UniProtKB/TrEMBL annotation:
It catalyses: Endohydrolysis of the N-glycosidic bond at one specific adenosine on the 28S rRNA. GO terms for biological process: negative regulation of translation. Disulfide bonds join C267-C286. The keyword tRNA processing does not apply. One of its GO terms (molecular function) is toxin activity. Signal peptide: none annotated. The active site is at E192. InterPro entries: Ribosome-inact_prot_sf, Ribosome_inactivat_prot, Ribosome_inactivat_prot_CS, Ribosome_inactivat_prot_sub1, Ribosome_inactivat_prot_sub2, Shiga-like_toxin_subunit_A. This is rRNA N-glycosylase. Its EC number is 3.2.2.22. It comes from Shigella dysenteriae 1617. Keywords: Disulfide bond, Glycosidase, Hydrolase, Protein synthesis inhibitor, Signal, Toxin. The lineage of its organism: Bacteria, Pseudomonadati, Pseudomonadota, Gammaproteobacteria, Enterobacterales.
Length: 318
């Protein structure tokens, strides 16, 4: 009888752990008060979810790879410091998937309503009431609804304040233009800035600029975001090659890599390779085949599709 109770207890414990995957979640703060607090906040999150790659490290700065941990695939990012002088606007929380840094939606902490994108309708967060929005989280959808491209979007303290107020005043299931614009801005300065120091660096200077200067994504910034999966698959194979080539992206040194990329997917762990939608909707996912790795040719580390395309063109022209 005693053994039977032990077995039942273990079974119940197992199912409790399985069904509580979304309940175990870390909470972080992203402080926009100054450029320094902003960068420090990003580094805290990166260090908590990633492991440094010793092969891509210089002067105390490393490229990090997201850990393949289990059980805590969600974390919360509490937005702070948008209005540092008055200390207002501290009720916005973003809910982020840990394995891939996708922002699943936002929480209005005044009423604890979690507005989640349609492609994350399965996601729950403890202590909140979930409302599923009518649109998904892809950049294709967000830009269409917002009526603006990412390269046409200005981001500074003022626009983030406006975006914050738009999100706090939202109710209902409709993915409105104001919500789409607000989420495009906040995704850029949270998830994309976590991934890319180039984006972090471009935006952070606006926080200490009293003139109201804005950060606007460049075509190169967008190209980085659209190739995060391919970069994540290739960069772990960097061991001092002369350069790295992924599509139109080229890095000629470790410092060039570190200046652009901060955190990569764990492409050789199954959880990072599972895509919910077509590759053109989520181009930042790892290649579907987890065995795809970088190829060294003529002392250059290549993404396989980039090298294949170049060799094909050479064959045709010869």
């Amino acid at each position: 009888m005693c053994n039977m109770k032990i077995i039942i207890f273990r079974v119940l414990t197992f199912f409790f752990v399985i069904f509580s995957v979304n309940v175990v979640a870390k909470e972080f703060t992203l402080d926009f008060s100054t450029a320094k607090t902003y960068v420090d906040s990003l580094n805290v999150i990166r260090s908590a979810i990633g492991t440094p790659l010793q092969t891509i490290s210089s002067g105390g700065t490393s490229l990090l790879m997201i850990d393949s941990g289990t059980g805590d695939n969600l974390f919360a990012v509490d937005v702070r410091g948008i209005d540092p002088e008055e200390g207002r606007f501290n009720n916005l929380r973003l809910i982020v998937e840990r394995n891939n840094l996708y922002v699943t939606g936002f929480v209005n902490r005044t009423n604890n309503v979690f507005y989640r994108f349609a492609d994350f309708s399965h996601v729950t967060f403890p202590g909140t009431t979930a409302v599923t929005l009518s649109g998904d989280s892809s950049y294709t959808t967000l830009q269409r609804v917002a009526g603006i491209s990412r390269t046409g979007m200005q981001i500074n303290r003022h626009s983030l304040t406006t975006s914050y107020l738009d999100l706090m005043s939202h109710s209902g299931t409709s993915l409105t233009q104001s919500v789409a614009r607000a989420m495009l801005r906040f995704v850029t300065v949270t998830a994309e800035a976590l991934r890319f120091r180039q984006i972090q660096r471009g935006f952070r200077t606006t926080l200490d600029d009293l003139s109201g200067r804005s950060y606007v994504m460049t075509a190169e910034d967008v190209d980085l975001t659209l190739n995060w999966g391919r970069l994540s698959s290739v960069l772990p194979d960097y061991h001092g090659q002369d350069s790295v080539r992924v599509g139109r992206i080229s890095f000629g040194s470790i410092n060039a890599i570190l200046g652009s990329v901060a955190l990569i997917l764990n492409c050789h762990h199954h959880a990072s390779r599972v895509a919910r939608m077509a590759s053109d909707e989520f181009p930042s996912m790892c290649p579907a085949d987890g065995r795809v790795r970088g190829i060294t040719h003529n002392k250059i580390l290549w993404d396989s599709s980039t090298l294949g395309a170049i060799l094909m063109r050479r064959t045709i022209s010869s």
